[in-house]
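Record type: ASSEMBLY
Status: queued
Input:
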Amino acid sequence: MPDLLDGLNPPQREAVLHGPGPLLVLAGAGSGKTRVLTRRVARLIDQGVPPHAILAITFTNKAAAEMRDRIAAMVGPAARDIWASTFHSACVRILRREAPEAGYPRDFSIFDADDQLRLIRRCMVEEDVDPKRVAPRAIQARISDAKSRLLDADAFEQAAGSFSDEVAVRVYRRYSDGLRANGAMDFDDLLMVTAQLLEGDSAVAARWQSRFAHVLVDEYQDTNPVQFRLVRALAAPQDNVMAVGDDDQGIYSWRGADVRNILEFTRDYPDARAIALEQNYRSTGTILRAAHAVVSRNAGRLPKELWTDRGEGEPISVIACRDEYEEGRAVAGQIERALSRGDSLSDIAVFYRTNAQSRALEDTLIRLGIGYAVVGGPRFYERAEVRDLLAYLRAALNPADRVSLERALGAPRRGVGPGAVTKLAAHAAARDIPIGHALAEAQMIPGLQAAQRAALAEVGELLADVRLRSEGGMPLERVVDEVLARSGLRESYEREGTFEARGRLENLEEMVRAAGEYGATAEAAGLAGFLEGVALQADADLVDEASGAVTLMTIHNAKGLEFETVIMTGLEEGLFPHSRSDSPDALEEERRLFYVGLTRAKRTLTLTHAGSRATYGGRDHRLPSRFLGEIPMDTLAPSQAGGRVSRPVSVSSRAAAIVRPGQERRPRPGYAMGDEVVHATFGEGIVIGVEGTGELVRVRFASDGAERRLMAGAAPMTKVGH
DNA sequence: ATTCAACGCTTTTTT
DNA sequence: AGCGTTGAAT
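Status: finished
Output:
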């Protein structure tokens, strides 16, 4: 085995070698904290700690998988047994065992934001709160905030003061009851319920405390109170806890994260050793100097400054643009420049503050034939038709899940609406059985039409079969395909026959494939595991370094990543810093976000802003962001230093040549990104993505602006030569 | 129960 | 501008 201390600087070494007891590692951006974390885990295993006794919390599932791989490279396949996951995934794993202790079924459903909102709306109506006067989203945010602070409805009521608090309390109480009745937990419950169990049930606590010998937490500055309590409970009583983080990179306070967790770690754990990592291995001196100048304007941060021995590097460019389209061309120009310097597409990232900004950038990149991949934004699993199909699976797995059942019953339309479901629910309540089981008794339910009875019974049989077969080990792909067939979803979309319907059906078929892929993986854990993965998948989990494409994403999603070339866009007042972040604290968080963006760049950094930008219906005038003024003049490229407005780099018309076939190991099917095509039915379109090994192409059509996935080999479609 | 049209709201960031 | 929700009509 290679020496675990190879190539580490003294503080990194110390962190890896730290013995038992609490450890705080203040790790600046690019200071090699991932290295320290993985080496430390490898060393623990090397010293005899069983891998399954190590809990390593990372910010994304992808980071967890990477950590496991890296450790496996050092200590071998035993690393498979390490618990490396996000807080949410770890809690689900615990809850699959312990949920009954908290009064939930083992197969509890996980409600996402959409399910939550549905249920909250219903609760508001029941509480006589008009969803038009009070935004359900606002209530949801209040509830989420309460849960992140470990306040249940009763505790929240204690803290309530204003009238709007009281309204929120009433809805919160009813919502909690609703979740319980559905055998469901929302995202926040996953953490809160686990914490409550660990703190309130000594048997449960003992089980897990003896299980984990070491707890390591990455991105500790972004933990919220529940997460703090979880860590504390799981690490007790030995307190072998290692927290790694950087107070300058706290960007999730709006989600309940509290930087005090990291600032006060040594107070929470008085025996803690604290180690600071300040040598940066990522960026040039210029980038670090600019980033430091920006972030040191914040008050209340731990004083520190990153340094590097890698030299100054090139200056930072600021490009002023007329509008968002010129900005797009400027971005393309910078990409072209980076490629000419030897970067590959995947070395380049474009950041923005809000997801909505990606639209204009995408338009330009498509037109110029620059391959890109957007991280975040609307997700596959959140598409309505996909959620319909998932609803069947969830209802099959958890017969108490009324929200999912109701959704399944409504898609496709089969003459069963809220009225019929209410009768079904009443019957289930009277017989004291889960609503899913009541389907089998449809014949006995009064007030239903014969057709409705038949429909309910049929869905009931389908769900029962799904459950039986998935338990019986039928491949997931076949189970999902059967739902697609027997639910009538496939037929209804086929009959509809519109472009729209065809696209939706493609998505559903894609989901069948996804289920097959999941079923083929090593950690496949049946239907429950599949649904769990779907629910807990983060945008950042989908970042694909090997995609051979420029990465477009929000700065939030860029946390933890690095790129040779970073282009940060939309540096405008009101957008970044965002107009909703007007309090001093919020402004400091915006500045930290800016800092995070700056420090993702290894070599080349460009900042752009537009003088006007389309919003809502009209067009807003924009002023350059105050953050631009916080960048020291002597780190900026000369042409910008005088404060003059510079023209964006012009983009040559042969920009399409930028995507060099062969340079990336990108499949070379008949179609490539940016190709103009003509489809027999849909007319003209532009290829905006090539999926899989090239058999699937994503095309946006000019006729109706819709995106469709098409089979490259089969679709009646040809490329227009250009 | 389903379909269609008018209305109003959105855009902060996400597990 | 676009989308989703709501309300009225069938």
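Annotation: Residues 131-132, 614, 616-618 of chain A lie near DNA strand C (CB under 10 Å from a C1').
Annotation: Residues 114 and 380 of chain A are 14 Å apart (CA to CA).
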